[in-house]
Amino acid sequence: MDIICTTSQKPTDSMIQSAITHSKYFKGEYIPRKRLGSLSERECVLVVTKSSLNVYIKGQKLAFHPSMAMLRVKRIKNGELDIFNKILGDITSWAVLDCTLGLASDSLVLSKLVSCKGQVTSLEKSKLIYKIVKDGLGKLDSSYPELSGLSKNITLKNVDFNNYIEGLNYGDFDLIYFDPMFDKPIENSPAISPLRDLAHYSPLSIKSLEKAKKLAKKAVIVKNNKNFPFEEIGLKKFTLPSSSVSYGIYLNKEE
Ligand SMILES: C[S@@+](CC[C@H](N)C(=O)[O-])C[C@H]1O[C@@H](n2cnc3c(N)ncnc32)[C@H](O)[C@@H]1O
After folding, report:
1. EC class of this enzyme (predicted)?
2. What is the count of structural domains for the chain?
């Protein structure tokens, strides 16, 4: 896909420089905003604004916004159990590998749950999603004080989880988590909808899942829709009554 890089209207010199740098990184083209016309008529445009990086893809805007994470972190602060605690109990100080960063809601919640004693490593294959989220997480403390400090112990990597897992040793991570794009999207999932045109869709392979089961010190979790045959791939299904998604769980009995 050809990527055009530009700025918002009335850019500063540093915004123009940033758009040029991004155009080189994405092997795309820098076009000054005043020459570009309507963003919705272009297939894919990266826009450098004063406060963020935004992508317009086929007329839809994708920007970093941790809305779901804010809600979940607020509930945790109010003493409610997050889904990861319902499945695993207390995970303070765990080392977590989030194989599918997306818009980082799960990574931020996991960062809150493991606390500063733990660590989250998050992988994203899409270059554009990675860039937008890396930029957003870098500005998290000033833009979203409710989530202040949570990006500090998240390490981001722009890699394919299948390759990354190959280089791991047993015990590098306590939890390995996968939330790949669903074959059948859940229509009422607005947070994920603009992500769909940019995301990678390769399903989680049995090879990578089996490798993860051997590597994770404590658990592997896979998220998918309710009809996904978790049992057929050796995972125990966990569904909250009110939820449209399910989780497949593998607990490492050696621990
Ligand atoms: C459903 S989204 C994850 C949402 C995320 N859990 C959140 O809370 O925002 C799936 C993400 O995984 C990425 N992805 C898919 N296959 C991947 C792979 N093999 N390696 C790394 N990332 C991958 C997609 O590009 C997409 O951004």
Report:
1. transferase
2. 2
Nearest-10 Cα torsion for 84, 88, 90, 91: -70
Residues 125 and 228 reside in one and the same domain: yes
Average pLDDT, the chain: 93
Contacts of 24 (CB under 8 A, 6+ apart): none
Domain that holds residue 41: 4-63
CA of 176 from ligand 1 middle (Å) equals 13
Give the residue, out of 1, 99, 100, with the most ligand 1 atoms within 8 A of its beta carbon, to mutate for a pocket test.
100
Q: How confident is the model at residue 199 (pLDDT cuts 50, 70, 90)?
A: very high
Contact 233, 189 (CB under 8 A): no
Q: What does the alpha-carbon distance between residue 203 and residue 182 come to, in Å, rounded to a whole number?
A: 8
Based on the domain organization, do 165 and 222 belong to the same domain? yes
